[in-house]
Automatic annotation (TrEMBL):
Organism per entry: Streptomyces oceani
InterPro entries named in the record: Phytyl_CoA_dOase-like (IPR008775)
Residues of the signal peptide: none
The entry's keywords: Dioxygenase, Oxidoreductase
SUPFAM superfamilies the record matches: Clavaminate synthase-like (SSF51197)
PANTHER family: ECTOINE DIOXYGENASE, PHYTANOYL-COA DIOXYGENASE DOMAIN CONTAINING 1
Protein name: Phytanoyl-CoA dioxygenase
Amino acid sequence: MSTTNGTTHSPLTEFERDGYTIFRDVLDPELIGEVQGHVDWLGRQHPEIRPEQLGHEFLRDDPFWVRLVSDDRLLDIAELFVGGDIALFASHYISKSPYSGQPVLWHQDSAFWPLDPMRVVTLWLSVDHSTTENGCLRVIPGSHRQDIAAVRDNIEVENVLGQEIATEVDESEAHDIVLRPGDVEVHHPNIVHGSQANTSPHRRCGLTIRYIPTSTRITAPEQPYPSAFWLRGDPGEVNTYQPRPRYAPERHYAFRDAAGWA
Protein backbone atom coordinates (compact mmCIF):
# COMPACT_ATOMS: atom_id res chain seq x y z
CA MET A 1 0.00 0.00 0.00
CA SER A 2 1.33 3.44 -0.89
CA THR A 3 0.19 7.02 -0.53
CA THR A 4 0.40 9.64 -3.27
CA ASN A 5 -0.85 13.22 -2.84
CA GLY A 6 -2.79 12.14 0.21
CA THR A 7 -4.60 9.29 -1.59
CA THR A 8 -4.07 5.70 -0.54
CA HIS A 9 -3.20 3.27 -3.28
CA SER A 10 -4.27 -0.23 -2.26
CA PRO A 11 -3.49 -2.48 -5.24
CA LEU A 12 -5.20 -5.56 -3.82
CA THR A 13 -8.40 -3.61 -3.15
CA GLU A 14 -8.32 -2.12 -6.65
CA PHE A 15 -7.62 -5.52 -8.16
CA GLU A 16 -10.52 -7.16 -6.33
CA ARG A 17 -12.90 -4.34 -7.27
CA ASP A 18 -11.84 -3.59 -10.84
CA GLY A 19 -9.90 -6.67 -11.98
CA TYR A 20 -6.74 -4.65 -12.58
CA THR A 21 -4.32 -2.25 -10.90
CA ILE A 22 -1.23 -0.24 -11.86
CA PHE A 23 2.25 0.04 -10.36
CA ARG A 24 4.33 2.99 -11.53
CA ASP A 25 8.11 3.13 -12.17
CA VAL A 26 8.74 -0.51 -11.31
CA LEU A 27 11.85 -1.03 -13.46
CA ASP A 28 14.72 1.41 -13.85
CA PRO A 29 15.48 3.18 -17.16
CA GLU A 30 18.72 1.24 -17.70
CA LEU A 31 16.95 -2.12 -17.62
CA ILE A 32 14.10 -0.79 -19.75
CA GLY A 33 16.69 0.32 -22.30
CA GLU A 34 17.98 -3.25 -22.40
CA VAL A 35 14.42 -4.55 -22.83
CA GLN A 36 13.89 -2.22 -25.78
CA GLY A 37 17.13 -3.49 -27.29
CA HIS A 38 16.02 -7.07 -26.70
CA VAL A 39 12.83 -6.50 -28.66
CA ASP A 40 14.85 -5.10 -31.57
CA TRP A 41 17.28 -8.04 -31.36
CA LEU A 42 14.44 -10.60 -31.36
CA GLY A 43 13.00 -8.93 -34.44
CA ARG A 44 16.32 -9.36 -36.25
CA GLN A 45 16.58 -13.01 -35.16
CA HIS A 46 13.05 -13.80 -36.35
CA PRO A 47 12.30 -11.55 -39.33
CA GLU A 48 9.59 -13.96 -40.49
CA ILE A 49 7.54 -13.30 -37.31
CA ARG A 50 5.31 -10.28 -36.90
CA PRO A 51 6.49 -8.21 -33.91
CA GLU A 52 3.15 -8.77 -32.16
CA GLN A 53 3.91 -12.51 -32.10
CA LEU A 54 7.25 -12.71 -30.26
CA GLY A 55 5.91 -15.27 -27.84
CA HIS A 56 6.78 -17.87 -25.24
CA GLU A 57 8.22 -20.45 -27.66
CA PHE A 58 11.36 -18.31 -27.95
CA LEU A 59 11.85 -17.97 -24.21
CA ARG A 60 13.38 -21.29 -23.21
CA ASP A 61 16.77 -20.46 -24.75
CA ASP A 62 16.90 -16.75 -23.92
CA PRO A 63 18.86 -15.88 -20.77
CA PHE A 64 17.93 -12.20 -20.84
CA TRP A 65 14.22 -12.94 -21.07
CA VAL A 66 14.40 -15.34 -18.12
CA ARG A 67 16.52 -12.83 -16.19
CA LEU A 68 13.90 -10.15 -16.86
CA VAL A 69 10.87 -12.12 -15.70
CA SER A 70 12.90 -13.24 -12.65
CA ASP A 71 13.54 -9.64 -11.54
CA ASP A 72 12.72 -9.36 -7.84
CA ARG A 73 10.72 -6.16 -8.39
CA LEU A 74 8.34 -8.04 -10.68
CA LEU A 75 8.23 -11.14 -8.48
CA ASP A 76 7.44 -9.01 -5.42
CA ILE A 77 4.37 -7.68 -7.25
CA ALA A 78 3.36 -11.17 -8.41
CA GLU A 79 3.70 -12.47 -4.86
CA LEU A 80 0.96 -10.09 -3.70
CA PHE A 81 -1.49 -11.92 -5.98
CA VAL A 82 -0.34 -15.56 -6.16
CA GLY A 83 1.75 -16.06 -3.02
CA GLY A 84 5.44 -16.78 -2.51
CA ASP A 85 5.82 -20.02 -4.54
CA ILE A 86 6.01 -18.62 -8.06
CA ALA A 87 6.52 -20.06 -11.53
CA LEU A 88 6.32 -18.54 -14.97
CA PHE A 89 3.59 -19.92 -17.21
CA ALA A 90 4.13 -17.76 -20.30
CA SER A 91 5.44 -14.44 -21.54
CA HIS A 92 4.89 -12.59 -24.79
CA TYR A 93 6.05 -9.34 -26.38
CA ILE A 94 3.23 -7.58 -28.21
CA SER A 95 5.14 -4.98 -30.21
CA LYS A 96 2.96 -2.81 -32.45
CA SER A 97 4.93 -1.15 -35.21
CA PRO A 98 4.18 2.48 -36.15
CA TYR A 99 1.18 2.82 -38.48
CA SER A 100 0.73 -0.95 -38.88
CA GLY A 101 0.49 -2.54 -35.42
CA GLN A 102 -2.45 -4.92 -35.21
CA PRO A 103 -5.29 -4.70 -32.69
CA VAL A 104 -5.99 -7.28 -30.00
CA LEU A 105 -9.74 -7.93 -30.05
CA TRP A 106 -11.76 -8.12 -26.84
CA HIS A 107 -11.10 -11.37 -24.97
CA GLN A 108 -10.60 -13.06 -21.60
CA ASP A 109 -7.25 -14.79 -21.13
CA SER A 110 -8.69 -17.68 -19.13
CA ALA A 111 -10.66 -18.82 -22.19
CA PHE A 112 -7.38 -19.88 -23.81
CA TRP A 113 -5.03 -21.16 -21.12
CA PRO A 114 -4.24 -24.80 -20.12
CA LEU A 115 -4.13 -24.21 -16.35
CA ASP A 116 -5.79 -26.08 -13.49
CA PRO A 117 -6.91 -24.31 -11.37
CA MET A 118 -7.06 -20.98 -13.22
CA ARG A 119 -4.95 -19.23 -10.57
CA VAL A 120 -2.68 -16.91 -12.51
CA VAL A 121 -1.90 -13.21 -12.73
CA THR A 122 -0.67 -11.16 -15.68
CA LEU A 123 1.88 -8.39 -15.27
CA TRP A 124 1.85 -6.14 -18.36
CA LEU A 125 5.22 -4.38 -18.48
CA SER A 126 5.24 -1.21 -20.56
CA VAL A 127 8.39 -1.28 -22.71
CA ASP A 128 7.52 1.92 -24.61
CA HIS A 129 5.15 4.77 -23.84
CA SER A 130 1.71 3.20 -24.16
CA THR A 131 -0.97 5.73 -25.15
CA THR A 132 -4.45 5.90 -26.59
CA GLU A 133 -2.94 6.99 -29.91
CA ASN A 134 -0.56 4.02 -30.31
CA GLY A 135 -2.92 1.26 -29.19
CA CYS A 136 -2.62 0.98 -25.41
CA LEU A 137 -4.18 -1.81 -23.36
CA ARG A 138 -7.91 -1.29 -22.72
CA VAL A 139 -9.94 -3.02 -19.99
CA ILE A 140 -13.57 -3.29 -18.94
CA PRO A 141 -13.40 -2.69 -15.16
CA GLY A 142 -15.32 -5.23 -13.10
CA SER A 143 -15.73 -7.69 -15.97
CA HIS A 144 -13.53 -10.23 -14.14
CA ARG A 145 -16.63 -11.09 -12.10
CA GLN A 146 -18.45 -12.32 -15.22
CA ASP A 147 -18.52 -15.93 -16.40
CA ILE A 148 -16.01 -17.05 -18.99
CA ALA A 149 -17.63 -16.41 -22.36
CA ALA A 150 -17.22 -18.45 -25.52
CA VAL A 151 -14.84 -17.20 -28.20
CA ARG A 152 -15.34 -16.95 -31.93
CA ASP A 153 -12.99 -16.62 -34.87
CA ASN A 154 -12.58 -13.21 -36.43
CA ILE A 155 -10.50 -12.96 -39.59
CA GLU A 156 -12.43 -10.06 -41.06
CA VAL A 157 -9.82 -7.72 -39.62
CA GLU A 158 -6.14 -8.55 -39.20
CA ASN A 159 -5.58 -9.00 -35.48
CA VAL A 160 -3.16 -10.56 -33.03
CA LEU A 161 -5.30 -13.45 -31.73
CA GLY A 162 -7.54 -14.21 -34.68
CA GLN A 163 -10.36 -14.62 -32.16
CA GLU A 164 -12.57 -12.52 -29.92
CA ILE A 165 -15.10 -12.84 -27.15
CA ALA A 166 -18.44 -14.08 -28.52
CA THR A 167 -20.56 -11.66 -26.48
CA GLU A 168 -21.15 -7.97 -27.04
CA VAL A 169 -18.81 -5.58 -25.22
CA ASP A 170 -19.96 -2.10 -24.24
CA GLU A 171 -16.94 -0.06 -25.31
CA SER A 172 -18.27 3.02 -23.49
CA GLU A 173 -17.18 1.25 -20.28
CA ALA A 174 -13.57 0.73 -21.47
CA HIS A 175 -10.64 2.32 -19.65
CA ASP A 176 -7.46 3.13 -21.59
CA ILE A 177 -4.36 2.10 -19.62
CA VAL A 178 -1.81 4.83 -20.34
CA LEU A 179 1.65 3.79 -19.16
CA ARG A 180 5.23 5.01 -19.18
CA PRO A 181 8.21 2.71 -19.83
CA GLY A 182 8.83 0.72 -16.66
CA ASP A 183 5.23 0.90 -15.42
CA VAL A 184 3.36 -2.36 -14.79
CA GLU A 185 -0.35 -3.05 -15.10
CA VAL A 186 -1.64 -6.19 -13.35
CA HIS A 187 -4.83 -7.93 -14.41
CA HIS A 188 -7.08 -10.86 -13.59
CA PRO A 189 -7.34 -13.77 -16.08
CA ASN A 190 -11.10 -13.22 -16.45
CA ILE A 191 -11.12 -9.49 -17.20
CA VAL A 192 -12.34 -8.47 -20.66
CA HIS A 193 -9.53 -6.55 -22.35
CA GLY A 194 -7.97 -5.76 -25.72
CA SER A 195 -6.25 -2.95 -27.60
CA GLN A 196 -6.70 -0.99 -30.79
CA ALA A 197 -4.43 -0.83 -33.83
CA ASN A 198 -1.40 1.43 -33.78
CA THR A 199 -1.98 4.14 -36.36
CA SER A 200 0.53 6.53 -34.77
CA PRO A 201 4.21 7.13 -35.72
CA HIS A 202 5.35 5.63 -32.40
CA ARG A 203 5.96 1.95 -31.60
CA ARG A 204 3.94 0.48 -28.72
CA CYS A 205 5.53 -2.54 -27.08
CA GLY A 206 4.43 -4.33 -23.95
CA LEU A 207 5.62 -7.56 -22.36
CA THR A 208 2.96 -9.81 -20.87
CA ILE A 209 4.24 -11.98 -18.02
CA ARG A 210 1.94 -14.73 -16.70
CA TYR A 211 2.88 -15.87 -13.19
CA ILE A 212 1.28 -18.85 -11.46
CA PRO A 213 1.64 -20.35 -7.99
CA THR A 214 3.57 -23.59 -8.24
CA SER A 215 0.38 -25.40 -7.10
CA THR A 216 -1.29 -24.56 -10.44
CA ARG A 217 -0.83 -27.33 -13.00
CA ILE A 218 0.07 -26.58 -16.61
CA THR A 219 -2.06 -29.12 -18.49
CA ALA A 220 -0.66 -28.61 -22.00
CA PRO A 221 0.51 -31.84 -23.67
CA GLU A 222 4.05 -30.55 -24.16
CA GLN A 223 5.98 -31.04 -20.94
CA PRO A 224 7.88 -29.22 -19.73
CA TYR A 225 6.00 -26.32 -21.26
CA PRO A 226 8.40 -24.11 -23.29
CA SER A 227 8.06 -21.15 -20.93
CA ALA A 228 7.59 -23.00 -17.62
CA PHE A 229 10.27 -21.77 -15.22
CA TRP A 230 10.36 -22.06 -11.45
CA LEU A 231 11.26 -18.61 -10.13
CA ARG A 232 10.73 -18.34 -6.35
CA GLY A 233 9.84 -20.37 -3.26
CA ASP A 234 8.88 -24.06 -3.33
CA PRO A 235 8.74 -25.62 -6.84
CA GLY A 236 6.02 -28.05 -5.76
CA GLU A 237 5.32 -31.34 -7.48
CA VAL A 238 2.67 -30.65 -10.13
CA ASN A 239 4.87 -29.27 -12.94
CA THR A 240 8.23 -29.91 -14.52
CA TYR A 241 10.25 -26.82 -15.40
CA GLN A 242 12.74 -25.75 -18.02
CA PRO A 243 16.37 -25.49 -16.88
CA ARG A 244 17.80 -22.01 -16.58
CA PRO A 245 19.39 -21.14 -19.95
CA ARG A 246 23.13 -20.46 -19.99
CA TYR A 247 24.42 -17.34 -21.71
CA ALA A 248 26.58 -17.82 -24.82
CA PRO A 249 27.75 -14.54 -26.41
CA GLU A 250 27.80 -15.96 -29.93
CA ARG A 251 24.05 -16.73 -29.91
CA HIS A 252 22.34 -14.67 -27.20
CA TYR A 253 21.40 -11.05 -26.60
CA ALA A 254 24.15 -9.28 -24.62
CA PHE A 255 23.08 -7.68 -21.33
CA ARG A 256 24.73 -6.22 -18.24
CA ASP A 257 24.21 -9.27 -15.97
CA ALA A 258 25.14 -11.80 -18.65
CA ALA A 259 28.28 -13.02 -16.83
CA GLY A 260 26.11 -14.37 -14.03
CA TRP A 261 24.17 -16.48 -16.54
CA ALA A 262 27.18 -18.03 -18.31
